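Student: Hello, beginner here. Can you help me understand the protein record under this note? Any guidance would be welcome.
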Amino acid sequence: MNIMDVSVKDQKDDGFKTTTEQTKNGLRERRSIVEDKGKNGKMQQKQQQRDGVSPGEKHENLYVALRELPAFSHLNRQVQEIVNQSTWWEIRGTDWAVLFSALAVTLLCLPLMRINNWWTLVVGGVLSGIAHASLTVKGGHLATHGVLSTSRFWNKIWTRFFIEFLGSYSSHMTHEYHIKLHHPHTNIIGLGDSSSWKMPGLSRFPYMFVAPMALPIITPFVAISQMWGLWKPMFLFACVVLSGYTSNVLLLVYISRFSVAGAIAFIILNRAVMMIPYIHVNIFQHIGLSMYSKDDRPTRLYQMATGVLNLNRNPLLDYCFGLGISNCHVEHHLFPKLSDNMCLKIKPVVSAFFKQHNLPYQERNYSERLHLFVDKYEELMVNAPTILHFVGIQ
């Protein structure tokens, strides 16, 4: 058995930082790397089958002194004080302004693309593609979490509008996968482990730089396959998506003077503009970090501290996907009911709290994560991840 200190240093194996010291008598956190070799092969095989992994994988036992883990309620009180002192503009207005700006860009690009010039067509297509990503990803994400309004009714309307009408994916399945699985079971093997983003049949460059361009075509069909048998939600979804596509085609035909075939082709290309970074952001922030067994999962605060990563500020990513997905993902996972702007506002408090209690606060550059995933694609995106068994010591 090899014992590895979890200290303040870059972990070259998986590209993230941990910040807890190892001390005597097992009172502080230490990570024991246990090779998958034991005295009792049958017991080992049963354990592997229970965890949903194949023989020959590496396991880690993570021993943590529970008395040293801070209570989430302490951080929650600090955040609630900030929220109570914030204005409506800070809580919701700023994010609505971003969404309205994206809608305005989309509408302004329609007459721009009417000009018989390739440059205006390209500029209009790229700008409206960026705006579309902001509306569907940022808007859909906020609506799914019920952030855009205090009314459940209006949040459902906005969810259908941003995710289904504009984005052609199912709001029903978004709630099932994102709210019920991903958030409560972040990086728990077999539940919210981000495995749905993996396609082991594709090699690194097709997956990272080519396959995402097909998402606008396959997205509605994937949604239908996921909802098959749920006839009412599937019927409503089909109606909303068809009305969204029809509206988009009509706008392009009557304002931008496209043919029907040209309008359909443009919609597909337009929606693919930000799909490559969209895939990247979704895999960069969880895969390659700590993964836990569902039978030995950590406390919520430690789970989010070790299983979630922020990307450094990037104006394009922040605008298209929202700060809660890009730069403040840790804060979003801790407080999913807060808007993107509020996640940014509480970020210094969360960061200081983590550092004060020796919890890892993980943050990386987009380019750094991209290099890591291209370099270690097989390890991160094809092979099953190492599982941590969380053992709390009183």
Q: What stands out?
A: Residues 2-77+290-314+338-393 form one domain. The radius of gyration is 23 Å. The chain is about 55% helix and 10% strand.
